[in-house]
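Sample A.
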Amino acid sequence: MLLLAVLGACAIVLPFVGLGTRVAWTELPTLLGSTSARTALNLSLRTCLIATTISVALGVPLALLLARDWPGVRVGRVMAVLPMTMPPVVAGIALLSTLGRRGVLGPSLEAAGIRVSFSTLAVVIAQVFVSMPYLVVTLEAALRSRDTHLETIARTLGAREWRVLTRITLPLVGPALARGTALALGRSLGEFGATIAFAGSKEGVTRTMPLAIYLERENDTATSLALAVVLIALSFLIVGATSVRWGDALTALRVRRRPGAPDPDAADADAAEPVAVPGRRRSPRPDGPVPLRIAFASTARDVVVDLAVEAGRALALVGPNGSGKSTACAVAAGLLDAEADRVSLGERVLDGPGVFVPAGRRDVALLSQAPGIFPHMSVLDNVAFGPRCRGDSHAQARRRALAELAAVGASHLAGRPGGELSGGQAARVALARALAARPRALVLDEPMAALDVTARARMRAVVGRRAAEEGLTVLLVTHDVLDVAALADDVAVLQDGRVVESGPVARVLAAPVSDFAARLTGAAVLLGALEGDRGAPRLRLASGGLITGRPQEADDDTALAAPSAAPAPPPGPAEASSAPSAALSGPGAALVPPDAVALYPVGRGAPSGSPRNALTGRVTGVERAGALVMVALDVGAGQVLTAAITTAALAELGVRAGQELTCVIKAVQVRILARPAANREDGRE
């Protein structure tokens, strides 16, 4: 590969070296000072700058159009590239056939007093025709491959389409735009074939540098070589300018010139504790907290959800991957318009029959797993973006942004470019940006999933404190039970696109009904057939094992109902008194927490006494969990039991994959629940 690369470089560089050996370098100023050389150079620079300006003005909208998907777009992309592939002389003949005196449009233009062919205007048109495709192709490829997540975030912050285009889209593809513009400029500067065929070669009118070089080559080789050197040098400077990181240079210059600017190399935000905003004490909105209602059905995604978040409270939405949690967040934020939906914030309908309030105008802030910090803006400009979109003046937006950064402990990052933040820093800045417009509802779609333990704890503290200060209504999507316990008042479990369990956090975590909620708390879910009665419930596993659970309480009737069904009414006195003698039957589940399981070598025998349950399991995995070790055991029929043991016990037992152990389970820590007859292991009815 190195040999081939060197040969390729030689194929490009050697012709320039050969040209350099023929140039009379000492006579270069004199040769370039001739009238013909100066005239050609001035005409080339003037026409190529005009042509490049036209190419940018027309090529950028064309690239934006071709980057979208619409019927016939593939044909359009081919047509945009076609001028790059045809011989320049053919391009000139095509222009002459269209705009010449006898062309398709020529007579009409002549009648209007516009003469195109063999004029300076013809030179510009020829340069635009052959150079604009270089800009369009380069920019269109960048636009099609760009990540649209940042544009989505900008819309949720209130940016309209024009602001999204000018402040987000084009700056993100800025390098491609600069490279395409440079290629178009260089191609215009070196255009020859189309120009000579369509515009001719008249000194001072149409004779550009390439034409002058061609003509001087026969009469004055030294002058033609001098002009060639100038043309190559200009092309090198034009294309080379696109390799300079102008954005970084301008950002550094702006930070250096701003008096009292925060030091971008200050301590990491992850190590900074949130500080109070000087002279300002936050308070809930004067109009008070409002409830959030989300009800929708999405046939394409098989999600049917009806959620209500009480005013000023936080609802945690949990469930397995693909259950529809992010879909619910997108509907709430206005990024998805599902069928049969109704979204309201207080008395204001955001989505319903004949009504759809787009993202950014709902008073709903969305914070997703990817912080989406705009890399081409400073941290301060990132946070000020939302207030600016909502009409705040530049000074007002910056003051609010500084206050929000101080509230999340990130003031020292204000002058740092957005693309230079760590994960924890970006998460804090994203929270400050989301709250800068003081939304009435906050939707958190796993914003802490990618953070380490320390950063997650700090992020929870910031979110909880700000939600309480602002009186926000919060919808939180998470897979972490600590997020639920620390931030949520209520919890809803989403499974297979349906809400299968909901209620206050304390009740759902203490007595989970759904499989996912049980696993979220760390309990193993074993399935089987119910036996015994309410006073001594038992579960017969498919493998033949028997598990005895704690006596069922009166309020277990509601837990025994199908997750998707309405809760059953509480039993009456007579019912309650006779319940223990009622025989149990049908499918059921046993919830076994890891700390209820003790492990013994097979053959030693289970101890007699209170544990009551003994199963034989085969070790399938061992994983460290803090100071303890979690041992996963297959107890038959593919069902897995988890035991929490110490590292000393792990070493004493010599636990290894495939080993058989006796699992002893205390009945008092086992909850046995009934399951609907049609329920399968995945929980879908």
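Sample B, a different protein:
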Amino acid sequence: MKPRVLNSLGRFFWQWRAVLVATPSVTALVILLRFLGLLQSWEWAAFDQFMRLRPAEPVDERIAIVGLNESDLRELGSAVISDQVYAELLEKLRSQSPRAIGLDVYRDLPVEPGHAALTEVFETTPQLIGIQKVVGEVGLDTVAPPPALAAKGQVGANDLVVDADNTVRRGFVSVQNKEGETVYSLSLYLALLYLDAEGIGPEMLEDDAWQLGEATFSPFLGNDGGYIRADAAGYQQLINYRGPQRTFETVSFSDVLNDQLPADWASDRIVIVGAVSESFNDTFYTPYRGNVLSLPTRTPGVEIHANLTSQFISGAVNSRAMIHSWNEPMEWLWIFGWAGLGSAIVWLCSPTGPQLKKRWQRISMIAIAVMTLFGSTYVPFLYGWWLPAVPAFLASVGAATVVTTYLAYTASDIRRTFGRYLSDEIVTALLENPEGQKLGGERREITILTSDLRGVTATSERLPPEMVIKVLNFYLGHMADVITRYNGTIDEFMGDGILILFGAPVRREDDAQRAVACAVDMQLAMGAVNETIQSWGLAPLEMGIGIHTGEVVVGNIGSEKRTKYGIVGSPVNLTYRIESFTTGGQILISTETRSAAGEMVHIGGEQQVKPKGVAQPITIYDVQGVGAPYNIALLKEEEFFFPLEQAIPVMFNVLEGKSINDTLLKGQLIELSEKGALLQMSAMVPVALSALNNLKLNFLQADASGADSLSEDVYAKVIEQRSQAEGGIFQLRFTAKPPAIADQLNHLYQSIGMATS
């Protein structure tokens, strides 16, 4: 096979992988459940429901019933009907020349008075068929036929087949007695007498099938339709009922005995005589027993025999359908097809498969599938085909469920994967919101938090890349946990910086408050981060945080091929500017954020700054903590400055954003603290310093030859101007120090502190 063909097949199998796995698996499971008989009762229920849903059929006028009811007993004045009554009844019916009379009453023993008269009627009525019960243990379950009718061979079996749910869906065509003799059922015997007048008789075919007029009959098998290993003894047929109780014309014993019927009422008809009241214990449940909204009703046995008799006659004369079913391989293929359809629909409607993107397409597909499943089983049933509706439904739903579960599992993997890059809320918005994947955005006021580590860039140049990644991942992992607790949305990691949104994609009333509280908690979490980092032999980290509240455009940005959930607007840039003014461990917020957060924010100070790109100066506030319901505050560290016995000369440049001003300035460090120093600038310096300027310093050191040399770069931020004497004295906060210089400064600070104390 050519590689191109193999590649095409591989792509096809991958594209439809869930369908190709779910379909055969679920099919096999449904077939197994069916084989175990676990679906049999459901399939019977579906059969019954389809039977009830069919349009009403016209009354079969060829068959009538003479039913013994409670009113007849009251009129006759006895609960036991004597042979005399039956003899009179049969005489009156015989006088109207019916084609056949079925006596669905046991008369194996005489019931005086009138036994002789009844025996004479039996002997002189060739179209009269009596009954016997054949199935069961002899002497316990069986009932002998009337002797006079048995002698003439005018006896049929009235046995009925009752399913496990006490419902009669099958009837006997014939049954064998204990002597191995074939006994026609009462229904078949009556039908044959009727059809004999039409010149129609049975003709045997191959495989136990037989022809009767226009109808072909085949024996019921144990696995036909929804049956599983049913007892198929004798020659059985599924009963195609014409309708519910009282489908056939029924008159009472009294109507016949009192001559209240037309003289030709029974002419050319089949008349079946039997009990129709519940008290005679000859009633059964049929598919027309009722539904969940009504109490179940029972049908007299005489009516069931009438239905089966009508089935024989209607099939032979009118080509009325028998109830057929497919063989098992065809049913398996049918179940397989519906499993495939169910899984394919879910797969097509999913983001993973070759998707149907529009909601109306998905709804239409599901609706069409449901209607097709109902129609493809109900319509054939109207024509006599009982197809597996329940297994097909379970296979379809089961396969759809398997694919849905697979998609959910895959989606959870996708969520976990994307959750490492995006917040859970963004992933949910993208995966579950129909609008979530569209390009574009909306204007919304949100609170933006950005954080950045101090001196990581310089430090990373001295560490192996693997260690840098290890440190950053450890730090970002701790920060992500804190951010998640406050329902912040991590929009992006930028090296050691984090951009966090409060108010997108989900907006809440306390967005600004949560942002400030989150910032405080992030700073507090740095303690645990630094404990671990210092145990690795590295210098502790410091973080600055800036927060601003403003209106931005938030949504999906990019192209159809590559999209990013993000924000656009000047408030984003202003947040970065505010953060750039921070020192390690500091949180600065804008006026807008302070107003939105309210009185819960504890402010330690404020100052005006003029960020680059902003026309007017703005006020920023130094956050020290937040009140209820959070009640957390930054740790207060008192800073002590000690004068140096010998000032440290430095050369420095002012940083302008990420660029370094080319003007090289001179000064000296005159006092030292644990994290900073006092810088005294040389007189007549051409550049004026101001608070929050960032500096790059190099210490002047004597080399081995005694000549001055510059140390490695040290970075610091101007906190405030302490004095205007000479060139000015400024308080600095170190932001990044090379390890060697950090050790020197720490050693010097400790020695000065000890000497001072």
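Observation for Sample B: Residues 698 and 713 are 5 Å apart (CA to CA).
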